[in-house]
Design brief:
single chain, about 90 residues, alpha+beta, two-stranded antiparallel sheet, 3 helices, 4 strands, about 15% strand
Length: about 90
């Protein structure tokens, strides 16, 4: 059995995002492909509260279920997202 060496061993063209800081102090993640930015919460204090609730509610965090619940709960409490639209587009 071969030991996994991460995604870089499987697909070397996938690189880790480059992290830069703007002059106003905000951190921006730039992906190696296309330079797109990540979605980020518009209300960071609400997002941190919801994330803390998800950590208490679910045994495993981060997980797909916990993150989906947290995002849905954040939106239901009036939160919104800024940045790149990362939804799947149907062609």
């Amino acid at each position: 059995m071969r030991v996994s060496r991460g995604m870089g061993a499987i697909r070397p063209e996938l690189k880790k995002p480059k992290v830069i800081r703007r002059k106003d102090g905000d951190k921006v993640d730039l992906y190696a492909e296309g330079g797109e930015t990540r979605s980020r919460p518009q209300n960071p204090s609400l997002w941190s509260k919801v994330k803390a609730e998800a950590k208490a509610k679910f045994d495993v965090y981060p997980s797909a279920y916990a993150n989906a619940w947290a995002a849905k709960e954040y939106k239901s409490r009036g939160g919104s997202w800024a940045g790149a639209d990362n939804r799947v587009k149907r062609g």
